[in-house]
Automatic annotation (TrEMBL):
Superkingdom in the source lineage: Eukaryota
UniProt cross-references to SUPFAM superfamilies, sorted A to Z: Family A G protein-coupled receptor-like
Transmembrane segments: 12-31, 43-66, 78-100, 121-142, 162-186, 207-229, 249-266
InterPro entries: 7TM_GPCR_serpentine_rcpt_Srbc
Record-given protein name: G-protein coupled receptors family 1 profile domain-containing protein
Family annotation (Gene3D superfamilies): Rhodopsin 7-helix transmembrane proteins
Pfam families, per the entry: 7TM_GPCR_Srbc
Protein's organism: Steinernema hermaphroditum
Length: 282
């Protein structure tokens, strides 16, 4: 039986997953209806799809946690794959964030080149995320322990070497994401000073830049800084934070960040009637 703080953490994840599963499809539908996929939002819509898949897998994973007192042996395979998909997609979501920021960085730095490479960039993002997911799944499947399917703690489902490798790769992926985020904030600030108030600037592009700007700020504040603080405490100060049983707070913060981003996308691209913005920008 997990402690109450763990159930609270998983409850937060479940609620955040539901928010994402409700709002992101609405945003996707609105984007398709307004033909936004042909404008400057191709990567945004792809990013929303990744978050929908992650939210669904997190929802299933949380349900498994809440019924963990049931007999796992009857559903061992389902429990294992739920744990695998959840952990692998958390890593994929990091790369999805990275490519979204790169997309906006190219759009504001090289607008003419962006028009030619935006579709290729989406394909590269999808391919990279697929490779990361397949690689993570392969590591899980080829390094299963006897607890696989009997534990919802992913580090207990695979051997120690594989768990350390996945954890190290996840931590390493945060470094380029942080650097790209900081560079984007710097470039966007200069871009807004240069052309931000020109009436000829594509209004939809400005809207998407603003949305991604808010997402970058959220990612830095909500989960990147806390994650680096945790790494410093555990490896710099050599203080162990045992959060395996009590639910990893870093994952909970990622889910909170994801839900907040879903709200931002919904408010900016749906609630504010983005179709009018698209029409005015043509």
């Amino acid at each position: 039986m997990a402690p109450p703080v763990a159930y609270f953490s998983y409850s937060v994840r479940l609620i955040c997953s539901l928010i994402t599963l409700i709002l992101n499809p609405i945003t996707l539908y609105n984007g398709s209806k307004c033909n936004l996929k042909y404008a400057q939002t191709s990567m945004v819509l792809c990013h929303l799809c990744v978050k929908i898949i992650l939210a669904f897998c997190t929802l299933v994973y949380c349900i498994c946690v809440f019924v963990e007192d049931a007999e796992f042996d009857q559903h061992a395979l389902f429990v294992f794959w739920a744990t695998l998909f959840h952990q692998a997609l958390l890593l994929v979501a990091t790369f999805s964030d990275l490519f979204l920021t790169i997309d906006r960085l190219i759009a504001i730095s090289y607008p003419l080149s962006y028009a030619r490479v935006k579709k290729k960039l989406v394909l590269i993002a999808v391919l990279t995320c697929s490779i990361v997911f397949a690689g993570s799944a392969t590591v899980f499947v080829t390094n299963m322990t006897e607890k696989a399917g009997r534990s919802l703690i992913w580090m207990e489902s695979i051997n120690t070497t594989a768990a350390v490798a996945i954890f190290a790769f996840t931590a390493a992926a945060m470094l380029p994401l942080t650097c790209i985020n900081v560079l984007f904030l710097y470039k966007l600030r200069r871009y807004n000073k240069r052309v931000g108030f020109q009436s000829s600037v594509d209004q939809l592009s400005k809207l998407v830049n603003n949305v991604v700007f808010q997402q970058v700020i959220l990612s830095i504040v909500v989960w990147i800084i806390p994650a680096f603080i945790r790494l410093f405490i555990e490896y710099g100060l050599n203080i162990t934070i045992n959060s395996a049983i009590q639910a990893d707070p870093s994952v909970t913060l990622i889910m909170v960040y994801m839900a907040l981003c879903s709200i931002i996308y919904w408010r900016k691209l749906v609630s504010n009637n983005v179709s009018n913005v698209e029409v005015s920008s043509r």
